[in-house]
Amino acid sequence: MKKVYMDHSATTPLHPEVIDLMKFAMEHVYGNPSSLYSLGQEAKKYVDEARQKVADLIGAGFDEIYFTGGGTESDNLAIQGAVYGNEKKGNHIITSAVEHPAVLDCCRNLEKKGYELTILPVDQYGMVDPEEVNKAIKKNTVLISVMHGNNENGTIQPVQEISKIAKKQGIFFHTDCVQTVGKIPVHVDDLGADLLTISSHKIYGPKGVGLLYKRKGVRVQPLIYGGGQERRIRSGTENTLGIIGFGKAAEIAARDLETENRRVKVLRDKLIKGVLEKIPQSYLNGHKEKRLPHNAHFSFAYVEGESLLLSLDMKGIAVSTGSACSSTSLQASHVLIACGQSQELVHGSIRFTLGRDNTEEDVDYVLSVLPGVVERFRSFSPLGGE
Amino acid sequence: MKKVYMDHSATTPLHPEVIDLMKFAMEHVYGNPSSLYSLGQEAKKYVDEARQKVADLIGAGFDEIYFTGGGTESDNLAIQGAVYGNEKKGNHIITSAVEHPAVLDCCRNLEKKGYELTILPVDQYGMVDPEEVNKAIKKNTVLISVMHGNNENGTIQPVQEISKIAKKQGIFFHTDCVQTVGKIPVHVDDLGADLLTISSHKIYGPKGVGLLYKRKGVRVQPLIYGGGQERRIRSGTENTLGIIGFGKAAEIAARDLETENRRVKVLRDKLIKGVLEKIPQSYLNGHKEKRLPHNAHFSFAYVEGESLLLSLDMKGIAVSTGSACSSTSLQASHVLIACGQSQELVHGSIRFTLGRDNTEEDVDYVLSVLPGVVERFRSFSPLGGE
Amino acid sequence: MYNPTVMDHFENPRNVGEIADADGMGEVGNLSCGDILRVYIKVKDNILEDVKYKTFGCGAAIASGSMLTELAKGKTVEEALAITNNTVADALGGLPPKKKHCSNLAADALHKALEDWQTKK
Amino acid sequence: MYNPTVMDHFENPRNVGEIADADGMGEVGNLSCGDILRVYIKVKDNILEDVKYKTFGCGAAIASGSMLTELAKGKTVEEALAITNNTVADALGGLPPKKKHCSNLAADALHKALEDWQTKK
Ligand SMILES: Cc1ncc(COP(=O)(O)O)c(C=O)c1O
Ligand SMILES: Cc1ncc(COP(=O)(O)O)c(C=O)c1O
Ligand code: FES
Ligand code: FES
């Protein structure tokens, strides 16, 4: 059976060059980077090389990169770390309604602990209005966190404008770039980020490793205490193998950014056009232009996402529904709800996210299979069609 | 040049069987375990298999295992998690003076935040007296954390007796088993642990992955919020590759525990005997009998550890000095200081930790090289010898 | 995620559809997931002659509806009333813990359809 | 960790030892790391005729002592007084940030030895 993986925003396979390097590292790089003897220093050299590569990818300084156990940890470190580390500055956080749970649940937990939280609304495309940010700022605002690109509907936020507002008021600005890095240019100075999150496994690197970019001078309190690795910001023996793979993935992401994403965008546009044409009562979610080049996110009236997903899986097509990163939860997508979509329509949402391995044939295959599957479930549905 | 790696308590190379499985997984297991389609469920199956293996290794239930980003994170999750998660029960923590920084610094940080902390003293072997635990308990004690085996001097603590005391008083008991698992039997019920830490890279698995054992019913607040993975205790996309390698390493550790450690102990005993005989004013640190089978930790009067380490490295021998996990720090080992050793002697401490790859020839080589190196530095030293 | 029996009923759901001249109809919406299941019954001489369902629901809902109709068909009203979500889930060989409520949808819709028939009678 | 120059001076330290009839001796202990370095000097006609050192210290301390003695030997007292930890660290081609204080040990011990000579004179 034909296999089409179109869930690259959930995770990506390892890039073949990443695999090669990691295979080498598994056999040869086994020292502890904190050890003083040559075997340890050799491991440290590999980690530092990777650090330079990820720094280069986002225009950061070598010393501004802190490796973590993934995007979720980086988001938590950025937010909890900045808030706990700057208690004298204030106790009010601003974020948006469409953030990843790693940001949103982290902020909500701080709210439970007594911090003030403003969750900004979004428009129908899931876009934050910078004017709303301005209005939400209070005397005690210490941190604004707005993601760069949305993991569900692919909408790209006006991060530059928001960071300018933050800067003017002397408020720290964090942005989750897990979905944008490697897809569109991510440069810490262009974005005006004080803190920035990246995850390795979304750019063809291994899972379980990520980074926090922390601008020099920004105070962050650690989440995890111990041996003092990562310049005391994130203790724990370095995930050398993961970091080495991440570094390679970053190098490739920088190298192939333009060509690969131009290619994927053409396929994605064909997919969107085909789906909207072939399937009645299908809707594209997210912003039409200001969206990630690999994302096509639809709602289909009168069908439920999980059954669609399972049926597509039986036909070899891997996609996701709702909030992909926690699709074991039953809650309807908070992102689409925030965009004002009805519960029922939200339930019929499916995300296609294309990647390196996808071809035009893949798109054609999806377009040949999807309409029938949607049609079939509609015939089962007590909603509509009557 | 002959290469002798004798720093297995700092980290271990990947076991060849672990490498093989990880190589396979790198190519074939790339789904996100939270994804509902078969590729995701396949990855979940591998993660669950690993979960069963680590559970089996320590006699835990499948549902009592929470994968984390390493031993340091597990220690922090256990301590911060239990303390924040049980604020109604009390705000006093008891730990020992010889804990790993992942426990000690985490506790000290809680003390800064207003929690009460008792750090128990140890005897000259680094042993905690259970009677002291009893005396330290207060009405508001919520957690006792005492490690199973020490990472520096190898002393094994009377964990069973301590956990009994904790249990009697209804206080949670955490034990860091990073150094003992795979070396001596570690069974959650035998040890009486409510919370227990293990790290993969000390048992020939990959770095950057560990686990927290949490007995059913013990409340722990997460450190990291997000998608709700690991049953909401530790959010973040699972480090599938790392977990798969960890699982395999656990399987091997269980399988080879007895034979391998009997073998290593013979070598270790030869090393201790040889060093003490050949080098005047050399002292064995830690307990003579109640010690890890692979650990030989010495202090040499009138020499400084780092120079010894570097010289041995030039001769192909990798060992560590002071607190190996943070050997970039200049502070003298807090463990040896807690044992009442003089600053100078502490400075001349060297840890040999043997492992699977060591042979009798390795020991002979060390015994042929070490005395000369110590002698040479003594001749440089303004201390003693005059 | 689902066992082969569930997947079979998901792939080839039995008795999907409506009964134009149904004697009873019951619809249940699940608050926790927003899904909906509707059951139609045809009753003759105290026997459920025909049972059909429609659902806007997850895989487990589709399979539960399918299994429910198979279980209920040909049963007496009393037997049908004794069908619970557990009956359905068990007949499916079990559902994942988070999906237990999906079998409720089916059982509850059947009971509602029976009530509907009762009142109309 | 250390550059090749440092490693060379660590492996083959110059002028290790004592001067039995030294004109000045200076010993410095470093509080942050507990290490010790001792410098012996022999002064004739305002020139440091001989300089020797001993250390209980890390690799950087051994290399710093070695480099210091090389730098100081044959210098006038004034020139020797001008030697700072930076002079030593620079001559070694740099030290890791955490190891900067090790070169202090050496420079400070020299200055103490010169003081000692001054008072004894
Ligand atoms: C926008 C966004 N932020 C954070 C994360 C979490 O990163 P990780 O999966 O590495 O924990 C993800 C994906 O899961 C994401 O899409
Ligand atoms: C006793 C002990 N606890 C915790 C740790 C930390 O584990 P990890 O290196 O996986 O962060 C170590 C080793 O570094 C250790 O020896
Ligand atoms: S999740 Fe709604 S019916 Fe199953
Ligand atoms: S660390 Fe003490 S002299 Fe270098």
UniProtKB/TrEMBL annotation, chains C, D:
A Pfam family hit: NifU_N
Domain (NIF system FeS cluster assembly NifU N-terminal): residue spans on this chain: 1-121
Superkingdom of the source species: Bacteria
InterPro entries (alphabetical): NIF_FeS_clus_asmbl_NifU-like, NIF_FeS_clus_asmbl_NifU_N
PANTHER family per UniProt: IRON-SULFUR CLUSTER ASSEMBLY ENZYME NIFU HOMOLOG
NCBIfam families documented for this protein: NifU_clost (TIGR03419)
Protein's recorded name: Fe-S cluster assembly scaffold protein NifU
